[in-house]
Amino acid sequence: MIKLGINVDHVGTLRNSRGESHPDPYLAAKVATKYGANSITIHLREDRRHINDLDVRRICKNKKLTVNLEMAANFKMLKIALFNKPSYVCLVPERRKEITTEGGLNISKNKFKLKKIIQRLNKAKIRTSLFIDPTKSNIKLSKELHSNCVELHTGRLAGLVKKKKSFNVELKKIRECSKYAYKLGLEVHAGHGMDYKTAKILKPIKEIKEFNIGHFIVGESFFYGIKSVIIRFKKILKK
Ligand code: PXP
């Protein structure tokens, strides 16, 4: 069965819109785990627009939660990760003005820094993942940098599916990159912009071990409740 990682960032977005403490991303992480999420993703952004430092501390401190901390590849964030010791770290590109993570990492441009950060995380026994656009050169570089996993950016595919446009070229890229990454010994994850439809489309790619889904789950939970949304995803993800 493909693992389901749930990103609770947007519970933080909603909380921050009032500047108070409700709804609480920590409680969301606990409830999502109780109903079957295999891991909880949180993205500590430079501008702290959804998750803040205290959320990271509370969520990582609860060892019953499997936490995937998404963060920009810089040494300030590395320090925070090493202090909070999440189970996983996923390195992502970050531009301050973007609405959400727009593309994968530019690995060749940031090779030296990424290598150092991955080394430090590996040493601390934190599983590392690189969020990349699905290209073979990105995968080859991820392997060279000793990342444990790659997360393939599904945003483009998801956008095409939502607009009811042909997505076959993008799907082929993701399929071929998944196979290539798997062959090189990298664990393959996929995420961004995903919903039930995209999950059904990507599920047959047997090399993908984990989906990371956030915005859709938080939004859909408003209508149907998080328990039933997770149950529906888990049904789809059964191999
Ligand atoms: N994976 C990564 C690396 C991301 O940056 C995000 C967005 O924070 C997601 C998955 C989840 O994307 P979405 O909220 O569109 O499901």
Walk me through the structure.
With 239 residues, the chain is α/β, with parallel strands linked by helices. The chain has one domain (3-237): TIM Barrel. The protein has eleven helices and eight strands. It is globular. The mean pLDDT is 96. Bound molecules: pyridoxine-5'-phosphate.
Task: Give short descriptive properties of this protein.
about 240 residues, alpha/beta, TIM Barrel, eight-stranded parallel beta barrel, 11 helices, about 20% strand, globular, binds pyridoxine-5'-phosphate
Give a summary of the structure in a few sentences.
The chain is of the alpha/beta class and 239 residues long. Helices cover 47% and strands 18% of the residues.
Topology:
Elements: E1 3-7, H1 9-16, H2 25-34, E2 39-43, H3 53-61, E3 67-72, H4 75-84, E4 88-92, H5 111-123, E5 127-132, H6 136-144, E6 149-153, H7 155-162, H8 168-183, E7 187-191, H9 196-202, E8 208-213, H10 215-224, H11 226-237
Parallel strand pairs: 1-2, 1-8, 2-3, 3-4, 4-5, 5-6, 6-7, 7-8
Helix pairs in contact: 6-8, 10-11
This protein binds pyridoxine-5'-phosphate.
Pyridoxine-5'-phosphate (PXP) binds at residues 7, 9, 43, 70, 90, 92, 100-101, 131, 151, 191-194, 212-216.
CATH topology label:
TIM Barrel
- By secondary-structure content and strand pairing, the structural class works out as alpha/beta
Indicate the CATH architecture.
Alpha-Beta Barrel
How many alpha or pi helices? 11
| Major sheet strand order | 1-2-3-4-5-6-7-8
What letter string, H or E per element, gives the SSE order?
A: EHHEHEHEHEHEHHEHEHH
Helical content stands at 40-55%
> What is the alpha-carbon Rg in Å?
17 Å
Q: Regions with pLDDT < 50 over 5+ consecutive residues?
A: none
Can you list the ligands bound to this structure?
Answer: pyridoxine-5'-phosphate
Instruction: Return the domain count.
Output: 1
Described by the principal axes of the CA atoms, the overall outline is globular
The span between the termini is 5 Å
Query: How many E-type strands?
Result: 8
